[in-house]
Structures are given as structure tokens and as C-alpha cells.
Design goal:
Layout (H helix, E strand, L loop, with lengths): L11 H28 L6 H5 L2 H14 L1 H13 L6 H9 L9 H12 L9 E2 L5 E2 L3 E7 L5 E7 L7 H15 L9 H14 L2 H14 L6 E2 L12 E5 L4 E2 L17 H23 L1 E3 L7 E4 L4 E4 L5 E3 L2 H15 L3 H11 L8 H14 L1 H4 L4 E2 L5 H13 L10 H20 L2 E2 L1 H13 L1
Parallel strand pairs: 5-10
Antiparallel strand pairs: 1-3, 2-3, 3-4, 4-6, 7-9, 8-11, 9-10, 12-13
Helix pairs in contact: 1-3, 1-7, 3-5, 4-5, 4-7, 4-8, 7-8, 10-16, 10-17, 11-12, 12-13, 13-15
């Protein structure tokens, strides 16, 4: 995490002004560089002027400093529409997946006083003013109670909740104005969903409720560990939980030989973590009907001694309707058996096909689903790290996008399910996991039928 600290603009006016200032500086750079090019007789386009490294740097830094809606919309676009975006915009949005700049301590203290009162430190024996994690909605601090219990205190950035709608609208306008978004891409559904998801994520009481529900769903399962909520210290904008010790999940990719005594091999440890992630996803989708839709490395840790997956951050949790859950169970079962007709029927139930769509479009969607389910049908262990599946899916999607008159936006629930799957694939690939995905699915089916 960066050592730099920058105040979070708290009013709608100041947040809009930041974006307006950004637009002005970018336009100024374009005018200056355009004049230089003209003076030397060099031909240059508006887009080339816009996409100067200096402008791209400014764009990414300003969105990260705004936190909240700016970062979240960028993350949604980069996850859900990455194959349709220009390489330059994809690069900008990819930077927004990194941690945000923490707010200054003075601003942090003000927030804590507003929520816990002037004597807020008396609630604890110690509070680390420097956060150990900072993201789009808030930052997390270590604290201790008088009993010695170690806590994780998640503090929301001020003004985030109030500025959600205007932030998203201002950013969407700026993206459209920039010309970086292809004209064919209809981002309004993503914009609307970004607003609603941010409203939910900014409600820490809702997140606490999801955390408790997951704990109940996984009660008695030693494969997973979830922090406990400290209700007496939590509110809608401050979430206090027990601190759970664990190793960063991406560090499993670099484990040393000293871990061989704790697992049969280094590879077996990584395989086990991914098996736990995939098994949990099946339960989320079909049993809980409650999916944590943000599967990035920062939201997981691993306890190597007992090979247990630690689950963190439930802000991006989404409840799924029964027909979506049933549709995906039908789709995966059909894809496992390479049943094209079954996949098409399941996609129809999920909501992919409206009346009057061309058969060619339906066939293309079925092709993408069957391709995406390649790990499910693979005989034996699927080698995620050496798979070019994301590239092939992207190429098939781009080929399909040329027939833009047939485009049909999928249900929003489906976008988040696919976002989860794509994120899990990326985790498995980075960990170099080799997993029998089909076996995990069939075991789950067998358990569900009992």
C-alpha cells in the first residue's frame, strides 16, 4: 500500500470539481501537444492526443483519489467489459483494482469522533492510525481491546455514501466524453448496477449481516474461517471484526520447500486452496444463493497449518433469485455432458435469450458457454496456469461482437456470476493450481441429492 495520504473529497461539489479539473487538465495537455504537432507539421488524431501517457496517468490517479464510485465503476467495467474496451482504457481501469490511497490521520480521527464520540479511543486499549489495507470504500485498521483481543476496524471514507449517484454519473459522462468507450457498448446497465452495488457496499450493517449469514452457512466446516462481528462497536460506516491471522493467498504461489512438511507438496497446497474456492462457489450459487462477487486476492487469506481458507470482505455480496440458481445448475450439468440443447435451454431460463433473436446469436452464446466450461469437462486435473482459455473466450467474444445488431445484454445477476468465475480462474492460474473441476462438481451434485 502506498505511503502517501490524500484527503477524500467529501461534498458532491468538491468531488464533481475534481473530475471537472481533471477534464480541464487533460484538455489543456491535448491543446499543448496538438499545437506542438501542428508546428512541426506532424499529423495527429484527437485520440492520440487524449491517450498521451501523461493524460492516462492523471486519469488513473484522480479516479483512485476519489475512491468509491470512481474506483468501483472502473472495476466493474474492467471485469465485465474488458474484451470490448480499448487497450488504453483497459490499462487505466486495471490500475483501479489496486489499493486506494489512505486518508490522512486528521480526517480519520474526525470520522471516528463522529461515530464513537470524542472519547472514541476509550473504547480500545490501542488503535493503529496507519491502515494495513485501503480500498474503494474504506480502509482497515488494527486495534486491541482491554482484554487483549485483536480487532480489524473497517472505516468508511467520508462522503462516499452521499456521493454515490453523482459520482457514478459524473464518471460515466467523463468516460463517454473521452471517446475511450466504443460506441456500440451500452454501459447504462453497468452504471445503474454500480450505483446499487455501491449503495449496498457502503452499508456496513448490511455487510455485517452477510458476514453472519455466511458464518451460519459454513458452521462446522473446518475448511473455512470467517471473522466475528463486534456488534457493540459497529455501525453503518464502521465495521469492527475479530482479527483473523493468515497468509496472503497470492503468497502461496511463492511458498518455499519448508512447507513440504505441512502439505504433501507445495503444489498440493495450492491445489487444495483452489479446490476450497471452487467448492465454496458451488455452495454459494446453488445452496446459499448468496454469492460474494468480488473474488480478488485481497479478500482471502490462508492458514497453512490447518489448510483453512479465510474469507474476508462481504461488501460485494449478492443474493440470487431461485430461477438464476436453478438455471446455472442446469447449464453446468448440460455443459458437463456437452449437451448443446441443454445449455441453450438453461441460458433461456437464466434470461439470455429474448424472443426474436437470430439463431446464429444463440449458437454463438452456447459456444461461449461450452468453451468457458472447458475445465468442467476436462478429464483429470485441469492445469489453470498453462491454459489459454481466457484468450480463446475473448477471441470468440470479439468475433461475436461484430454482429452488433444481435447484441442482447445478459441479466445483471449473470454478469456478477461470470465476474466471480472469471476472478476464480485468475486466482487458480496465478497459484498454478491443477484441479479436477469435474470431480468437484459431481461430488457436489451427489451431496445435494442426498
Amino acid at each position: 500500500m502506498s505511503n502517501k495520504q490524500k484527503s477524500v473529497p467529501t461534498s458532491r461539489f468538491s468531488r464533481a470539481a475534481r473530475l471537472g479539473s481533471l477534464a480541464g487538465k487533460v484538455a489543456g495537455n491535448m491543446l499543448f501537444e496538438g499545437t506542438k504537432a501542428w508546428a512541426t507539421g506532424k499529423q495527429t488524431s484527437r485520440q492520440e492526443l487524449l491517450l498521451q501517457p501523461k493524460n492516462i496517468q492523471r486519469f488513473a490517479e484522480q479516479l483512485a483519489n476519489l475512491r468509491g464510485a470512481a474506483m468501483k465503476l472502473g472495476q466493474l467495467l474492467s471485469m465485465d467489459s474488458g474484451e470490448l474496451l480499448t487497450p488504453e482504457l483497459s490499462a487505466i481501469l486495471a490500475r483501479l483494482r489496486a489499493e486506494a490511497t489512505p486518508m490522512p490521520q486528521k480526517q480519520l480521527v474526525k470520522v471516528m469522533r463522529e461515530h464513537w464520540g470524542d472519547a472514541w479511543l476509550e473504547q480500545l486499549s490501542h488503535f493503529e492510525l496507519r491502515p494495513f489495507a485501503a480500498a474503494s470504500i474504506g480502509q482497515v485498521h488494527i486495534a486491541y481491546r482491554d482484554s487483549g483481543e485483536k480487532l480489524a476496524v473497517k472505516v468508511q471514507y467520508p462522503g462516499i455514501a452521499k456521493g454515490i449517484a453523482s459520482d457514478v454519473d459524473n464518471l460515466a459522462y467523463l468516460l463517454k466524453l473521452s471517446g475511450l468507450l466504443p460506441k456500440e457498448v451500452e454501459i447504462q446497465p453497468l452504471i445503474d448496477e454500480a450505483k446499487q452495488q455501491l449503495i449496498n457496499e457502503a452499508d456496513y450493517e448490511l455487510e455485517a449481516n452477510y458476514l453472519k449469514r455466511y458464518s451460519e452457512c459454513l458452521k462446522g466446516d473446518d475448511n473455512y474461517l470467517i471473522p466475528n462481528v463486534v456488534d457493540s462497536l459497529s455501525s453503518s460506516q464502521v465495521l469492527v471484526m475479530s482479527f483473523v491471522e493468515g497468509q496472503e493467498l497470492d503468497e502461496l504461489a511463492n511458498t518455499g520447500q519448508e512447507l513440504d512438511e505441512l502439505a504433501n507438496t507445495e503444489q498440493a497446497l495450492r491445489n487444495k486452496a483452489v479446490e476450497q474456492l471452487l467448492s465454496l462457489f458451488l455452495r454459494e450459487l446453488f445452496s446459499f444463493k448468496l454469492v460474494q462477487t468480488d473474488p480478488n486476492f485481497a479478500n482471502y487469506q490462508y492458514q497453512i497449518d490447518n489448510q483453512r481458507l479465510v474469507l474476508l470482505d462481504f461488501g460485494a455480496t449478492r443474493e440470487l433469485p431461485q430461477h438464476i440458481s436453478d438455471g446455472y445448475l442446469q447449464l453446468l450439468s448440460a455443459a458437463y455432458n456437452n449437451d448443446r440443447a441443454g445449455v441453450a435451454t438453461a441460458a433461456q431460463q437464466i434470461g439470455y435469450f429474448q424472443q426474436g433473436l437470430a439463431q446464429e446469436y444463440i449458437d454463438n452464446v452456447v459456444d461461449i458457454f461450452l468453451l468457458a466450461c472447458e475445465p468442467l469437462r476436462h478429464q483429470g486435473e485441469y492445469d489453470f496456469a498453462n491454459s489459454d482459455l481466457p484468450k480463446r473466450i475473448k477471441e470468440l467474444g470479439l468475433k461475436m461482437s461484430t454482429a452488433s445488431e444481435h447484441w442482447h445484454a445478459p441479466p445483471v445477476d449473470a454478469l456478477f456470476v461470470h465476474r466471480k468465475l472469471a476472478g476464480l480462474f485468475l486466482i487458480a492460474a496465478k497459484l498454478g493450481a491443477k484441479v479436477n473441476v469435474g470431480s468437484i462438481f459431481k461430488d457436489f451434485e451427489a451431496q445435494s441429492e442426498k
